[in-house]
Write a structure and sequence with these properties.
Elements lengths: L12 H15 L4 H11 L9 H10 L3 H17 L6 H18 L5 H17 L13 H5 L8 H19 L7 H31 L5 H4 L2 H16 L32 H15 L2 H14 L10 H24 L7 H17 L2 H6 L3 H14 L6 H16 L7 H36 L9 H6 L7
Helix pairs in contact: 1-2, 1-4, 3-4, 4-6, 5-6, 6-8, 8-9, 8-11, 9-11, 9-12, 11-13, 12-13, 12-14, 13-15, 14-17, 15-18, 17-19, 18-19
């Protein structure tokens, strides 16, 4: 059975019905052979760009979700694998069609179809970024998506967030049909033109949620908007700012290489205000949203020094981080579930390691509240159950190692004396507890599996963690 090769942009009723039947069979077959035959009959729609108009016809007129989803999937394949077969204006037409479809019907579209359309728009935007030079329509996508953010229609705001999230994911991913050089060129151009706009939009959206400055309609989906805003902000801060993937092994030493164009958002207290926003997001959220907020705080703790106009601004940034950590640990002592989620715990431990990795000990000890901060961190290091979180424990030990190692470099003898007293008070006990937990883990392993070697890789076991010991 075949739909027939019809070059007309329209399908007649019979052809549409045949496409629907074949698509439903391909996506929901009774057996493998039936699926193969249906896909063979539909193969031309994912390999012949001249059939794009017919796929649009299916999206506009079919009553079958499977048929519409299949049509959107075919459009994705055509765009990726036959991009050069499309004229520039045709690419723009498809892009405008998808954008308008999401604007007009996005909130009512089924999830499966919406996912395909979001992917299609993101792919077109990336591949067509330099079409038409500086006047490229595709470079205006982010500006056009801002019109989706409407207090009277929060479900359109959710669509806007979804578009930007999918676009960032696509820009950051390697595309099989373009070279690595082309990918980096688009990535850097997107960073310079659009990334800061997107981050500001995410922050504005989250501030409205945090202050409850939202419409009654938005309150019904506020958790979903928060989730999207946090996801979008996290993607912005995890962006490959320099055009090359970071080395995973040095992740805990990372400095966030934000461009100089972002400097205004860290001046005049704005950086502290942004940090405070995400601390609020953390305190008011649960589950994945809480973990995402902490992930963002980790990234913000690593902003490079040159983005702060003065040392005063950078010290205020450090104070916000330390105060947030101290407040969290006070709450944790009353309710351990605040770090009960493994991802949240892991990101928090990364934050502790990053703090010393990006600030000097002299700055930390001079910060207001340092005495309470080091005491609370010590109590957390000693009281937290690390049996199921050895990787997170490593980051905590990295913090203590860096604190102890930096003592000889303190300039002020007074600072050195007070710091030495506190670290001499806490560090040995933290180390002893760490060693006890490691020995207990070995004993547990032997009892649970007496025939297995608890140290199958002796070199890795003996060399991987002692470097983090204080």
């Amino acid at each position: 059975q075949s739909t027939g090769h019809n070059p007309s942009p329209q399908m007649n009723a019979e052809q549409l019905a045949t496409f629907e039947q074949l698509a439903e069979t391909a996506m929901n077959p009774r057996n493998h052979q039936e699926s193969v035959k249906a896909q063979e009959a539909l193969a031309m729609f994912s390999s012949e760009p001249q059939l794009t108009a017919q796929l649009k016809h299916v999206l506009d007129h079919s009553g079958s979700l499977l048929a519409r989803t299949y049509a959107a999937t075919c459009l994705n394949k055509l765009i990726v694998w036959h991009w050069n077969s499309f004229k520039e204006q045709t690419r723009v037409d498809i892009r405008n069609y998808v954008l308008n479809l999401l604007a007009e019907r996005g909130p009512s579209l089924e999830h499966e179809l919406r996912v395909q359309l979001l992917s299609l728009l993101a792919k077109i935007t990336k591949l067509g970024w330099f079409d038409g030079g500086d006047e490229s329509v595709h470079q205006k996508t982010v500006d056009q998506v801002t019109s989706f953010f409407r207090p009277d229609s929060p479900r359109h705001s959710l669509i806007g967030l979804a578009i930007l999230i999918r676009l960032l994911e696509e820009i950051g991913a390697n595309t099989a049909t373009i070279t690595l050089t082309q990918h980096r060129k688009v990535s850097i151009a997107f960073r310079d033109l659009a990334l800061l706009k997107i981050f500001k939009l995410a922050v504005t959206t989250l501030r409205a949620i945090d202050s409850n400055n939202i419409s009654d309609a938005e309150k019904e989906v506020s958790e979903q908007i928060k989730q999207g805003g946090l996801r979008l902000a996290a993607l912005c801060l995890a962006y490959d700012f320099v055009g090359t993937s970071p080395v995973e092994s040095t992740e805990d030493h990372a400095v966030l290489k934000i461009p100089a164009s972002w400097k205004p958002i860290f001046d005049d207290g704005d950086g502290v205000a942004i940090l405070d926003l995400f601390w609020n997001m953390f305190n008011k959220s649960r589950g994945d949203n809480r973990a995402r907020a902490m992930e963002i705080i980790v990234e913000l703790s690593s902003v490079r020094r040159s983005l702060f106009a003065t040392d005063e601004h950078r010290n205020a940034h450090l104070a916000s981080l330390m105060n947030g950590i101290a407040d969290l640990l006070v709450s944790w002592q009353q309710d351990a579930s605040i770090l009960g989620d493994s991802q949240t715990l892991h990101h928090f431990c990364r934050l502790l390691a990053r703090l010393k990795g990006n600030f000097q000990l002299s700055q930390i000890v001079q910060a207001e509240g340092y005495t309470d901060w080091i005491r609370l961190v010590a109590q957390f290091s000693l009281q937290q159950d690390w049996s199921d979180a050895p990787n997170s424990h490593f980051y905590v030990m990295t913090l203590w190692s860096r604190l102890v190692a930096a003592i000889p470099y303190l300039d002020s003898s007074r600072s050195r004396a007070s710091t030495t007293d506190l670290l001499e008070k806490y560090a040995p006990t933290v180390l002893e507890t760490f060693l006890d937990t490691r020995l207990a883990a070995v004993e547990r392993a032997v009892l649970e599996c007496p025939t297995d070697d608890p140290l199958p890789d002796e070199e890795a076991a003996t060399l991987s963690q002692p470097e983090a010991l204080p």
